[in-house]
Amino acid sequence: MTLVTTVMGLLLALASVGAAVVAIRVRSLPVAILAAGLVSLLAAVLFVLLAAPDVAMTEAAIGSGLTTFLFFFVLGRVRGGGDHD
Amino acid sequence: MVDALILVAAVLAGLAFLLALLRFLLGPGPADRVVAFDGLTIVSVTGIVLAALFADRVIYLDVALVYALLSFLGVIVVARYLERRP
Amino acid sequence: MGTLLDLLGGLLLVAGTTFLLLGGLGLVRMPDVYNRIQAGTKATTLGTLLTLAGAACLQPGWTIKLGLIGLFLLFTNPLSSQVLARAAHRGGLHPAGVTKVDRLAEDNPRELGPKELGEPS
């Protein structure tokens, strides 16, 4: 059982590295925000696998939910900033 | 027997996770990436349920509940942003 | 109790994750945003519900919480996919060339913008 948990954790870590690379490299601003939200979402699953469900709940609520919501709210308010091609 | 079946389920969920991640990495537009994000979240809910079965702890399911709620809110927010775009 | 319920739970788990895998395959293989929404939401919703049912068979004490998660997914997931498809249509994404019927464009022909399918990122 611990082998399965290890393999799932490695998969999640590699996936979050890929999402972070997307967040850095992409030109479009909404996609970058979405990729940053995906990083914290995968980190929340990783915290669950590491037997810390309360940390995972906080990470999912604040890091993924509130931060992404605030970023998109501000991006909708700011006119002309960030050409999303 | 049941442990082997749970193992097969974990492998299949990992493959589905990889496919959705591939769509997120090479999706051409923002809408494709939002769809892939939604799919990744749903697969992650299944992964959390499987982890709860592995570890035999019921408290993990609360994380899955928060997860489902946040996936819905995130997709709604992004869709409102995409709709306002000219 | 017994092993019969456990066997049923394991088979439901495998069936649910098979549907998840098919949904992921559709997410990669489909040619269009709308087809991807359809494949990536319906199949994964059914897969998650089957997985939750299998987990409820394996651990009968968890049924209430698993049912709550399933009910929530059943309510919110089709709604989010519909909102996303409508936003993509209003944002000016054309369906792929194989699509023959477009009821939203018939309702309001000025909704579609000049953009082509997909955008180079």
Short synopsis of the structure:
Chain A has three helices and no strands.
Provide the gyration radius of chain C in Å.
Answer: 19 Å
Question: Any idea what the shape of chain C is?
Answer: elongated
Query: What portion of the residues of chain A fall into strands of 2 or more residues?
Result: under 5%
Low-confidence stretches of chain C: 112-121
H/I helix tally of chain A: 3
Oligomer: heterotrimer
Helical content of chain A stands at over 70%
Helix percent of chain C reads over 70%
Instruction: Give the number of domains of chain C.
Output: 1
What does this structure look like?
The complex is a heterotrimer of chains A (85), B (86) and C (121). Chain A has helices at 2-25, 29-49, 53-77. Chain A is mainly α and 85 residues long. Chain A has one domain. Chain A is flat. Chain B is mainly α and 86 residues long. The longest helix of chain B has 26 residues, at 30-55. Chain B is flat, with a radius of gyration of 15 Å. Chain B has helices spanning 2-26, 30-55, 60-84. Chain B has one domain (2-84): Helix Hairpins, CATH 1.10.287. Chain C has 121 residues and is mainly α. Chain C has one domain. Chain C contains four helices and no strands. Chain C starts with a helix and ends in a 14-residue tail after the last helix. Chains in contact: A-B, A-C, B-C. Chain A binds chain C through residues 26-28, 31, 85, and chain C through 119-121.
Structural key phrases:
heterotrimer; A: 85 residues; mainly alpha; C: 121 residues; 4 helices; disordered C terminus
Which secondary structure elements does this structure contain, and how are they paired or packed?
The complex is a heterotrimer of chains A (85), B (86) and C (121).
Chain A: H1 2-25, H2 29-49, H3 53-77
Chain B: H1 2-26, H2 30-55, H3 60-84
Helix pairs in contact in B: 1-2, 2-3
Chain C: H1 2-29, H2 33-58, H3 63-90, H4 103-107
